[in-house]
């Protein structure tokens, strides 16, 4: 059997496929497991109950059932939901958008597959790339290209802070956009680091994108107004040159596979055509079920009253556990400004992050090794092999004990 180059790229294994495989096939040999890997959000009882109530109401409503479950939505996505989302953005932010500025996708991972290939790739004989202005960046971007390798990235400036913390900063001095750049993209808050680019950093990127006539894609999977997992002041901006990606996943519904793109009408029209080819239409189930929560803004209250406070207090707790366990060890945590992770850096790690991952797995601790999170940064840099990502959304005792076991391994290696 012969596969195409495109097929072989996936058959050869990709970082994100390995991660998803490992998560689905955790060791089952009776050992206690400390599940600190993967990107599952926390399951908060009040939030889950609010969603379950919407699901029941939806099932009992023959009109919404007939319009969404029993029919294809438009290729742009569930119309009623898109309209209520446009209204929410008009009211909350005053953005001049209509339904023509929003498309739904089957999760934002699916949106990124479309967006990156919409802009990046060969154009008039030039290989055009996506600039990720600040590594580390989200692992899921890495292998989405159908054509040439798509990403160029650059190192951040590392600022050491007090109390075993550090923070990545955009290296503005080295930023430049040539005619080989098709778009800029940042996740904000950033997966894996929990960094939130400052308003000033976003303004620099925004200007760079506008000046060079390329879009700035902002991956807002953890950002405002939902799920709003942000612990520092940050302004959410949108205009015609910004492509904003959002998702239901970190609200607590990754199984819904619902992503949202807010962009200018030309981009939304292109995504709609791509949706038709790839999916006929994106799933409209969760959009239909949750629409009432977007109509009356209740979803924002859930975020403000439950989701954001949970992660804020959890990140403070997790930092406390980290400091306790790693006292006196060469270990730093990225300042957790948003998202659902702690990003740990071991500057003197004598083995690779992949080897550390295997050693921790032997101890029953599942994390994600850091080397996956540098898409487009091909240069040798020790830092790429000195970090790990830890999910802090799960059971508190599991995280605390898991961090302690990681510290024991680092101590053994030191
Ligand atoms: N972008 C970021 C920054 C993420 O962390 C994730 C998932 O973890 C995604 C996009 C993809 O999410 P989904 O496809 O579930 O919307």
How would you characterize this protein structure?
The chain has 414 residues and is of the alpha/beta class. It has helices spanning 5-11, 15-24, 45-59, 62-69, 79-93, 108-119, 199-211, 265-279, 285-295, 298-325, 353-362, 396-413, and strands at 34-35, 102-105, 121-123, 126-132, 151-153, 157-160, 165-169, 181-187, 216-219, 242-247, 259-262, 332-334, 341-345, 365-366, 368-369, 387-391. The strands form 3 sheets. Strands 2, 3, 4, 5, 8, 9, 10 and 11 form an 8-stranded mixed beta sheet that branches. A 6-stranded mixed beta sheet has the order 6-7-12-13-16-15. A two-stranded parallel ribbon has the order 1-14. α3 packs across α9, α5 runs parallel beside α9 (285-295) and α10 (298-325) packs parallel to α12. The model has no long low-confidence stretch (mean pLDDT 95). It binds pyridoxal-5'-phosphate (PLP). Pyridoxal-5'-phosphate binds next to α6.
Brief sketch in words of this structure:
With 414 residues, the chain is an alpha/beta fold. Helix content is 39%, strand content 16%.
List keywords for this structure.
eight-stranded mixed sheet, alpha/beta, six-stranded mixed sheet, 414 residues, 39% helix, binds pyridoxal-5'-phosphate
Number of strands: 16
**Intertermini distance:** 48 Å
Give the count of helical stretches.
12
Q: What's the average pLDDT?
A: 95
Bound molecules: pyridoxal-5'-phosphate
Class from secondary-structure proportions:
alpha/beta
Structural topology:
Layout: H1 5-11, H2 15-24, E1 34-35, H3 45-59, H4 62-69, H5 79-93, E2 102-105, H6 108-119, E3 121-123, E4 126-132, E5 151-153, E6 157-160, E7 165-169, E8 181-187, H7 199-211, E9 216-219, E10 242-247, E11 259-262, H8 265-279, H9 285-295, H10 298-325, E12 332-334, E13 341-345, H11 353-362, E14 365-366, E15 368-369, E16 387-391, H12 396-413
Bound molecules: pyridoxal-5'-phosphate.
Pyridoxal-5'-phosphate is lined by residues 39, 107-109, 138, 140, 187, 191, 219, 221, 247, 249, 254, 259.
């Amino acid at each position: 059997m012969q596969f195409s180059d495109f097929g072989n790229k996936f058959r050869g294994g990709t970082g994100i496929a390995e991660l998803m495989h490992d998560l689905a096939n955790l060791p089952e040999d009776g050992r206690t497991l400390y599940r600190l890997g993967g990107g599952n959000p926390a399951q908060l009882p009040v939030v889950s109950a609010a969603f379950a109530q919407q699901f029941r109401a939806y099932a009992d409503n023959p009109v919404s059932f007939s319009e969404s479950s029993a029919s294809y939505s438009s290729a742009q996505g569930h119309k009623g939901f898109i309209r209520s989302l446009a209204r929410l953005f008009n009211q909350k932010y005053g953005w001049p958008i209509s339904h023509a500025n929003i498309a739904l996708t089957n999760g934002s991972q699916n949106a990124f597959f479309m967006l990156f290939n919409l802009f990046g790739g060969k154009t008039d004989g030039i290989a055009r790339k996506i600039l990720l202005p600040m590594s580390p960046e989200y692992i899921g971007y890495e292998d989405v290209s159908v054509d040439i390798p798509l990403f160029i990235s650059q190192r951040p400036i590392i600022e050491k802070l007090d109390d075993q913390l550090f923070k990545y900063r955009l290296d503005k001095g080295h930023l430049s956009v040539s005619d080989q750049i098709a778009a800029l993209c940042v996740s904000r808050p950033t997966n894996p680091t929990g960094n939130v680019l400052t308003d000033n950093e976003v303004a620099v990127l925004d200007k760079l994108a506008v000046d060079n006539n390329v879009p700035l894609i902002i991956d807002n999977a953890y950002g405002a107004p939902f799920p709003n997992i942000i612990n520092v002041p940050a302004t959410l901006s949108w205009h015609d040159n910004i492509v904003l990606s959002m998702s239901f996943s970190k609200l607590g519904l990754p199984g819904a596979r619902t992503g949202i793109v807010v962009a200018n009408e030309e981009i939304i029209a292109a995504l709609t055509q791509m949706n038709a080819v790839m999916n006929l239409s994106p799933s409209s189930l969760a959009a239909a079920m949750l629409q009432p929560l977007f109509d009356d803004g209740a979803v924002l209250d859930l975020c403000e009253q439950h989701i954001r406070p949970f992660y804020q207090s959890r990140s403070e707790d997790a930092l406390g556990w980290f400091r306790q366990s790693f006292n006196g060890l060469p270990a730093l945590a990225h300042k957790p400004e948003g998202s659902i992770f702690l990003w740990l850096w071991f500057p003197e790690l004598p083995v690779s992050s992949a080897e550390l991952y295997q050693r921790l797995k032997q101890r029953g601790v599942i994390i994600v090794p850091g080397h996956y999170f540098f898409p487009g940064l091909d240069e040798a840099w020790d830092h790429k092999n000195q970090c790990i990502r830890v999910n802090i959304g799960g059971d508190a005792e599991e995280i605390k004990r898991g961090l302690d076991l990681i510290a024991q391994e680092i101590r053994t290696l030191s």
